[in-house]
Amino acid sequence: MRRVLVIVVAVAAVSPALAHTGGVADGLVGGLMHPVFGPDHVAAMVAVGLWGAFLGSPAIFILPIVFPLVMALGGVLGILGVPLPGVEIGIAVSAAVLGMMVALAARPPLWVAAVIVGAFAIFHGHAHGAELPPGADAVAYSAGFVIATGCLHLAGIAFGLLTRWPAGRLAVRTAGGAIAIAGLMFLGRLA
């Protein structure tokens, strides 16, 4: 995993030849940067990894796969300009709800957890797609935001693995509570 992360960072850091408009910086790098520099996106995506780790197998694998797959669909809708009302509210609520799921140690059936994660992924994907820079390579940009999302999920999973120990379980639930509070703050800023 460390090697994959090093390769992704190295590829993203390479200076492009910019021989045509909408260079790689607007494509892959722009896509990589968009989720990472949005605290609302970071909170929700880390919460998905935390919740998956908290729920254990198979959720630890399924939730972080469902989110980017459905997010990519939402991204296509955003790129195509299909309207989706309440995108910013949906993103803020996603952080609050997903954080609360972790904080409260919610253990719904896997399909319910996947539906919750997928429903919120639509909003995140739409926001990413709608903010595609003009002239950018939509495929590279989309790949970037999916890769960045995966890395944020992995960060949540890594921290979430602390649930193996009683103190770690408390730390993960506390992190979920912090994410839920952050989500409420994001929501409050929209009002």
Task: Describe this entry's structure for a reader.
The protein is globular. The longest helix is centred in the last third of the chain and has 25 residues, at 166-190. The relative contact order is 0.22. It has one domain (38-190). The protein starts with a helix and ends with a helix. The chain is mainly alpha-helical. Helices cover 76% and strands 0% of the residues. The protein is built from eight helices and no strands.
Question: Features of this protein?
Answer:
mainly alpha, 8 helices, 191 residues, single chain
Characterize this entry briefly.
76% of the residues lie in helices and 0% in strands.
Structural class: mainly alpha
Whole-number count of domains? 1
Mean pLDDT: 87
Poorly predicted regions? 8-24
Which overall shape is indicated by the principal axes computed on the Cα atoms? Answer: globular
Portion in helices:
over 70%
Largest sheet: none
Number of helices: 8
Alpha-carbon Rg, integer: 16 Å
Tell me the fraction of residues in β-strands, as a range. Answer: under 5%
Question: What's the count of strands?
Answer: 0
End-to-end CA span: 40 Å
Taken in chain order, the helices and strands follow as: HHHHHHHH
Query: Oligomeric status of the shown chains?
Result: single chain
